[in-house]
Design brief:
- With 297 residues, the protein is of the alpha/beta class.
- It has a single domain, classed as Collagenase (Catalytic Domain) (3-Layer(aba) Sandwich).
- Helices cover 28% and strands 13% of the residues.
- It has six helices and nine strands; from the N terminus they run αβββββαβββαβααα.
- The strands form three sheets. Strands 6-3-7-9-8 form a five-stranded mixed beta sheet, covered by helices on one side. Strands 1-2 form a two-stranded antiparallel sheet.
- The protein starts with 20 loop residues before the first helix and ends in a 10-residue tail after the last helix.
């Protein structure tokens, strides 16, 4: 579920239907899978990745609680922002990533918006929209707690940012995400709490300039958002949280897991596949529908 971009952000996105054809595919594919996916997720066991955003977007809760909706905002940290405890780690402009097919800040924002929307379409998750950051809010240990983020704070609950490899401490990963730490665990400390919700892309990764760089960027964005929402890596073939990270839409397991934690999209029950097929068969009988003959080509 999505409420649209926050006021004042519409001018940021100049939509080009030809250039971003895949965006409609991502949302449409996710929605189509939701229709046939079982809310029980019998064939997929949720992988807990610590706590998850709470119902009102200003709290966190255990993913083992009963399904509850959530709502969240997102933002992009501009280039030139130093990490509060290490001035050698400075964010890069997203355009410095050089992703194939993307050139402007708007282009990158559209892909990230599509990634957030993919999850919002799968379960009772509301995308409250984009918040434009000014670069004044620190990142790192002095960053805002997840519960304190949102419209009034000037940063999103999910903060996307880019660093070169040195800025990521030499990490070779394509991207990193800091999930919400589970209370009382060794990772439940101020450092991680202030970074919970942060997604860090490696700006100088080798695959961005590949012909499929735009696809990789979309998939990796969906993958890292999945971590923020409470999912760890798995081995489900069609999941965006499993290798080889080339899917352009959420898989059945991703959707079943999201529904198990946040409830079905729109807060309505998802029919079992058998029930759905029966309903479709009834519609055919009632309408007297017959398939048309295909013309030769």
């Amino acid at each position: 579920m999505r409420k649209g971009l926050l006021q004042g952000a519409n001018s940021l996105f100049v939509r080009d239907p030809q250039k971003f054809w895949w965006r409609r595919f991502v949302i449409g594919a996710s929605l189509s899978v939701v229709i046939v996916a079982s809310a029980k997720g019998q064939d997929w066991l949720h992988q807990n990745n610590a706590w998850v955003p709470g119902p009102d977007g200003t709290s966190v809760r255990s993913p083992d609680d009963s399904p509850q909706p959530t709502s969240l905002t997102w933002s992009m940290v501009p280039g030139g922002v130093e990490q509060s405890n290490d001035s050698s780690r400075v964010t890069k402009d997203f355009t410095e990533m050089g992703v194939s097919g993307l050139s402007s800040f708007d282009d990158y924002a559209l892909v990230l918006e599509a990634a957030v929307d993919a999850w919002a379409s799968a379960a009772d998750i509301t995308n409250l929209g984009y918040i434009a950051e000014t670069g004044d809010v620190p990142i790192g240990p002095s960053g805002l707690l997840f519960e304190d983020r949102g419209t009034a704070s000037g940063v999103g609950h999910i903060r996307f940012m880019a660093f070169d490899q040195a800025g990521l401490g030499g990490a070779s990963a394509l991207a990193q995400a800091t999930p919400i730490p589970e209370p009382g665990t060794p990772v439940d400390n101020g450092y991680n709490l202030s970074r919970a919700g942060d997604i860090r892309f490696r700006s100088d990764a080798y695959l961005w300039d590949d012909l499929l760089g735009q696809d990789y960027f979309l998939n990796i964005a969906m993958h890292e958002i999945g971590h923020i929402l409470g999912f760890a890596h798995n081995s489900v073939p069609d999941s965006v949280l499993s290798a080889p990270y080339t899917e352009l839409a959420l898989g059945n397991g991703d959707i079943a897991g999201a529904v198990a934690i946040y409830g079905p999209a729109g807060g309505t029950a998802i029919p079992e596949p058998a029930s759905l097929m029966l309903a479709m068969a009834s519609m055919v009988c009632l309408t007297g529908w017959r398939p048309r003959k295909r013309m030769p080509v």
